[in-house]
Write a structure and sequence with these properties.
Strand order of the largest sheet: 4-3-5
Number of strands: 5
Number of helices: 6
Shape: flat
CATH architecture: Orthogonal Bundle
Strand content: 15-25%
CATH superfamily: Winged helix-like DNA-binding domain superfamily/Winged helix DNA-binding domain
Structural class: alpha+beta
Largest sheet: 3 strands, mixed
CATH topology: Arc Repressor Mutant, subunit A
Amino acid sequence: MGMTEGEIASLFKKHGLYRTAARERIVRLLAEERRPLSAAEIRAGLAPGGADLATVHRTLNTLSQHGIVTAFPSGGGKRYLLDLEDRHGHVALCLGCGASSAIQSCSDAQLRREASAVGEREGFQVISHSVIHFGYCAKCLREDKKPCKEERP
């Protein structure tokens, strides 16, 4: 599920950012993938000549600072996920290798009640949510990659 030119233009305008080729390519890739990616995976997913790794890192930093992507720790590095207002998702993320899996259902009524209570109490309008479950995939568990305190988010 990608984004149209108009959606990308609107996203950058909303966040007060100029449209650059690198920003557009990275946002487009993250929108298509709909899963957390490392900077190296983003670089590899860009068309030939898309951007070098340093440009990818700088661009991700800018997009993260402006709330367009969310960065979180993974396997000694970071992974990035497009953070759109209408995005609603749950992800299981391996801290060992960075593998991720989408969790399709969202039936936690208690979470929704708590979010509504915050809204009423604080005047905060909840428009979406994401949940990231950090842990270890079967492969990392088989390879005995033990959790370590430094890797915990």
